[in-house]
Amino acid sequence: METAIFLLFAALAVVSAVVVVAHRNPVHATMSLVLTLFSVAVLFVLLGAPFLAALQILIYAGAILVLFLFVIMLLNVQREETPYHGQPVQRWAAILGAAVFCGMLAMLLFRSSLASNGGAPLGPLTESLVSFKGLAADLFSVDLLPFEIVGLLLLVAVIGASAVAKRPTAEERLAPGRRLPEGPLDGAEDQPR
Amino acid sequence: MSPELTANLAATAAKMVVALGMLLTVVPVMVWVERRGSALMQDRPGPNRLGPFGLFQALADALKFFFKEDVTPTAVDRVMYLAAPVLVLLPALTTFSVIPFGPDLLWNGRRIPLLVADVDAGVLLFLALGSLGVYGLVMAGYGSNNKFSLLGSLRASAQLISYELALTLAVVAAILPVGSFRLPDVVAYQQAHVWTVLPQILGFLVFLVASFAETNRLPFDLAEAESELIAGFHTEYSAMRFASFFMAEYIAMTSLSALGVTLYFGGWSLPGIHLGNGWLGAVLGLLVLTAKIAVALAVFVWVRWTFPRFRYDQLMRLGWKVLLPIALVNFLLTAVLTLLGKI
């Protein structure tokens, strides 16, 4: 039973992940990514970590990908957008990303091979690793520094996004009269409540 | 199969029948309540011809939906368009599985917890599945290939994301003193202490407002504001496909009401009364929960026919600048008080 469920959802995860990369329509690709995340959440449940599964769906599928879709639909990205080939920055970024991924994979393999040598083994998921209390204790004691760094990184990203979004006001200052008159969205802020 | 497994499967199947039966009966009843209730509030008779008090009107409506022509426009994105009505129903139907509807039943030497999915992450599972509901709306809007639908689903996704934060924070603050994500534990805690609504009145108000936004109900039904968007994300749907959006709205309201009364009003329990672990207790528990959900649904109808629709910028400002800060302060206060052992 469990093997059948595992095979079904593992296959679903892989196939939908390929569709994410291969599909020309960005909305379809994003929906496929939702399916991937959902399948991985099912695998978490099979591993005995329903908490991780719930968080995976709640945060990734339920919030982050909705924002993805929101942006794609707001920008009205059509299928067959101009391909991004020939932009060197992106190629280097892709190579760097692949290198980091390979490094992490190598580290994982190295650490699991240590197990046979009697070093620090990567045992199966235990209750203390996947329960609420175990996860929280690890996050806020053992891994406190990385946790805080990730928090700081997200804060920087939020500030960066706000800075990028603020650009039109600078344009407005440079070329007055080029923007549309203020809509209710901007004007409402100035009115006294 | 071992007899143990067979018994467990049978018990789960029976519980699913109870939960699904309840959710599906709610729809026609609520259609009647909504139509007669709005008529009452607007001082007109409402549908009163078919059956006593017009009770069979809902059945006639259902029959009408079955026999209407199902039109699929030619320019739609077929996969998205056809999957959306199913996807919008699924989360609405599954979230109820973590709601306990009675005390543990002792029968034939077994202890049967009266909820479909008795998992440790119950509340989180509810929120996670509930957050998937937005995909149905988004796919409907995108798949319809219609600017009104697209605008409606854009509004829906922005609105759901905004209010989900406040809702989640309110829920977390409510279960913080309990120390468990299992809803049966939440009910047991309220039996031992008081209904959570008393210490968590602030959180409850946030939950109340956010649940109107989460279910796309007036005064927050901007996603289908008929005066500007025709019918919003379901403009292009007809017959049973349209009806499934309609059903999903009522079922989502019922599930969210069930979560609300379980978190804040003791769920199936009554203060000071021990229902016992027999069949009588189970039936009484189900009746008490149903009665509480009925009151919550009546509030949904009452609010819908009382308040005018918000403007979209007002909706967003209320979500981010009023509800979210209140929910955060409430959460921090609860966390500190719980840590100090005052709650």
Q: Spatial order of the strands in the main sheet of chain B?
A: 1-2
The parts of chain B where pLDDT drops under 50 for at least 5 residues are: none
Regarding quaternary structure, how should these chains be classified?
heterodimer
- Following the backbone from N to C, one meets helices and strands of chain A in this order, namely HHHHHHHHH
How many helices of chain A does DSSP assign? 9
- Structural class based on helices, strands and sheet pairing of chain B: mainly alpha
Rg estimate of chain B, integer Å: 21 Å
Helix content of chain A: over 70%
What about the largest sheet of chain B?
Answer: 2 strands, antiparallel
Second-tier CATH architecture of one domain in chain A: Up-down Bundle
The number of helical elements of chain B comes to: 12
CATH class of one domain in chain A: Mainly Alpha
Would you spell out the secondary-structure blueprint of this structure?
The complex is a heterodimer of chains A (193) and B (343).
Chain A lengths: L1 H21 L3 H21 L3 H26 L12 H27 L12 H4 L1 H11 L1 H22 L1 H8 L9 H7 L3
Chain B lengths: L2 H39 L15 H11 L10 H17 L10 E3 L2 E3 L9 H10 L1 H11 L3 H29 L7 H10 L8 H14 L11 H4 L9 H26 L14 H26 L7 H29 L3
Antiparallel strand pairs in B: 1-2
Helix pairs in contact in B: 1-2, 1-10, 1-11, 2-10, 3-5, 3-10, 5-6, 6-8, 6-12, 8-10, 8-12, 10-11
